[in-house]
């Protein structure tokens, strides 16, 4: 494996939005897999008010070499003004799975980062 695997967390307003985003980023090889957790309760501050919303959570498996293009794509597809996009490095994992993530993603997706 020549690149580090990341798990990117991204909340979306609902499961259908999550499915649409997931299909797009997997089809473009910006992610190997996206898990959609259909019901999470988010409590947060927005415009100086405490808010509570039901959302869906995307757990996106990608690589460091795809991250910039993935983030750019998420920002174009996402309906929120300020979407949650948080990448966490995978420290350890089954080598066969980590290699699969690397094999399923683009090794140099830079050209997609500017494609809007």
TrEMBL record:
Pfam families tied to this protein: CutA1 (PF03091)
List the Gene3D superfamilies. Answer: 3.30.70.120
What top-level branch of life does the organism fall under? Answer: Bacteria
> What's a GO biological-process term for it?
response to metal ion
- InterPro entries linked: Ion_tolerance_CutA (IPR004323), N-reg_PII-like_a/b (IPR011322), N-reg_PII/ATP_PRibTrfase_C (IPR015867)
UniProt-recorded Gene Ontology molecular function terms: copper ion binding
Question: What protein family does this chain belong to?
Answer: Belongs to the CutA family.
Protein name in UniProt: Divalent-cation tolerance protein CutA
Q: Which organism is it from?
A: Aliidiomarina haloalkalitolerans
